[in-house]
Amino acid sequence: MSMTHYMELLATNQPWNLILFMAIPVVLAETVAITELFILFTRAFNGTLRLVNRLASIVGGAYFCGVFIWLMWTAVIPLTTGAGWRGPADVIAVGFYLSGIVPLGGLALLDLGLIGKKRNEEGKLKLHACFVAIFLVVAHIAMIFGMLDPAVLGAGQPMDAAMPGMHH
């Protein structure tokens, strides 16, 4: 059994890669998600909870921007140019993990006041909640495909064996 590059990244250099690439982004995103729920239910658009929410959003977006750039430079580009991908599950896992930059970056930009300027506080919170939801979806897709043995989706097989009925 082999593993995706996503899972290999998390398993290598224990516990540091797990902390840097999984724990920190997820703890920040979960902090945003949990505080978001309380803010939505209580309509407390100001106060300590909102401050924690904003800080976690900004730090999470900035942190993941660094992760995104580093992984693109050190993993995605070399894997792509060197034909090193381990099949579709590998590409899906890494692709969805890195796509987390869109919602996390959006959260940071929103809380920095760089987007959504014309929205009122409730409108900003709705957009904020959408970004949180998108992040949760892409992160879970990345985790599911990341834990999958790449051979399940045909990695390592000749193209005809991986895709029956396709003849070249």
TrEMBL record:
InterPro entries: DUF6803 (IPR046547). The keyword Acetylation does not apply. Keywords: Membrane, Transmembrane, Transmembrane helix. The chain crosses the membrane at residues 16-39, 51-73, 93-115, 127-148. Pfam families: DUF6803 (PF20617). This is DUF6803 family protein. It comes from Uliginosibacterium silvisoli.
